[in-house]
Design brief:
Helix content: 40-55%
Structural class: alpha/beta
Number of strands: 14
Distance between the termini: 45 Å
Number of domains: 2
Strand content: 5-15%
Largest sheet: 7 strands, mixed
CATH architecture of the largest domain: 3-Layer(aba) Sandwich
Order of helices and strands: HHEHHEHEHEHEHEEEHHHEEEHEEEHHH
């Protein structure tokens, strides 16, 4: 029974840690919000102005999205990926999270989730009544699966439909998948469908970001939106790009959309046209410059013989592994860290890892991004003094976390 499934689910841990941190702050405790991940930057002014101009828009829009918005999104993505997407390939949703849920509902088969996976993938798959295959990954491969590992799952029963979720840059690890071609070979060989969650792609620290869709576009549904690169998480606008070969899935999602959210807020859709039509490269470059500098500060100052960690490659997360045997689970460890230091982290078990792996997700966004952005040039090298000036809680929180790791 679906109702029984819902009863057994817990609230999203990412949202819960934000509420827990806020409550502790209200009690007077100094909290370092390294648990909840959201952009520290404000929405670009031209996009905000466009939202204000369109506050009067009060009509229901087409359930697939405003045609002009779908057109600019298709053009924007086609130019980036060198693949010809049309407006009919685009579905606009109230955040990509809702569209992913509808995909889970319409898909009939098994979901392959590499660990680490974003916290909502598995619960949504459960609600969609699909079997989940958790694929444990290794640090040496940037916490992404190999083609052989994926093939091993599929070859057990080739008659089933399989949907692989691939999130690069990754939440929670901050890593980028570098073995896309070998995964694409498996996708073509076994008719594997891939959901490529690219919500952090604009925040890749290196240029020339590549997606799995660059290698097998006909097998890939691209998922992204405004929340991360545009600082507009609360606006709730995301979209899918569905290739012509998967139009049956797109049509089924549209039917569910018509019976659930109807259409995304009209003023936000009109404002989003500006987000994808105007040139925001300066805003994005400054965002990446700041996030890269802050992320590398955390990486360089936290890693030690007690803490294993990969260098950040995109987005605003790191995934440290604490080498200690004091705790029974990563959740217990994170509770201890919060109580002892005030640093809020999310345990690796929330992202599909075994609970006895002492992994945690660290979000390095606890600072005023707009103040930081206003004080730097596009590509100016950001030194530690600048980080200390505009992101002091990052400096202090990392210091507390490092001292804690050395004491346990």
């Amino acid at each position: 029974m679906l109702k029984n499934l819902v009863k057994n689910l817990k609230p999203s841990s990412t949202l819960l840690i934000n509420e827990t941190s806020s409550k502790l702050e209200e009690q007077g405790k100094k909290i370092f919000k390294f648990g909840f991940g959201q952009s520290p930057f404000k929405v670009p002014e031209d996009v905000v102005d466009e939202l204000k101009k369109n506050a009067h828009q009060n009509k229901y829009l087409p359930m697939q999205g405003l045609s002009e918005l779908r057109e600019v999104v298709a053009n924007y993505t086609s130019n980036k990926k060198n693949y010809n997407y049309k407006s009919e390939n685009v579905i606009i949703g109230p955040g990509s999270k809702e569209l992913m849920f509808l995909l889970h509902v319409v898909f009939d088969g098994e979901i392959i989730l590499p660990a680490p996976s974003w916290v909502s993938y598995a619960p949504q798959a459960i609600l969609g009544r699909n079997k989940i295959q958790i694929l444990q990954t290794k640090r040496e491969n940037n916490w992404f699966p190999t083609g052989i590992e994926i093939e091993k799952i599929i070859s057990k029963d080739k008659s089933k439909n399989y949907l692989l979720f691939l999130n690069s840059p990754n939440n929670p690890s901050g890593q980028i998948c570098e073995n896309l071609e070998e995964i694409s070979i498996i996708a073509k060989k076994y008719n594997l469908i891939i959901l490529s969650d690219e919500i952090y792609s604009e925040l890749s620290f290196k240029e020339n970001y590549q997606s799995i869709s660059n290698f097998c576009p006909e097998k890939t549904i691209v998922s992204t939106g405004l929340s991360k690169w545009c600082g507009a998480g609360g606006w709730r606008l995301g979209y899918f790009l569905v290739p012509n070969s998967l139009m049956e899935i797109k049509n089924m999602i549209n039917v569910l959309a018509s019976e659930t959210f109807s259409a995304v807020s009209a003023p936000i859709q009109y404002a989003a046209i500006k987000a994808y039509k105007n040139d925001h490269s300066q805003y994005i470059n400054k965002s990446k410059n700041i996030l890269s500098a802050v992320g590398n500060y955390v990486y360089n100052n936290l890693r030690s013989n007690k803490v294993l960690i990969n260098e950040p490659q995109g987005g605003f997360y790191l995934m440290p592994e604490f080498l200690n045997k004091k705790f029974n689970s990563s959740a217990d460890m994170c509770d201890s860290i919060l109580n002892d230091t005030g640093v809020a982290l999310l345990p690796g078990s929330d992202f599909g890892f075994d609970q006895n792996k002492m992994l945690a997700r660290l979000s390095f966004t606890d600072f005023d991004g707009q103040k930081f952005m206003n004080k730097i040039d596009d590509n100016k090298k950001i030194d530690n003094d600048t980080i200390n000036e505009f992101a002091p809680k990052i400096i202090e929180g990392v210091d507390k976390l490092k001292k804690w790791s050395e004491s346990v």
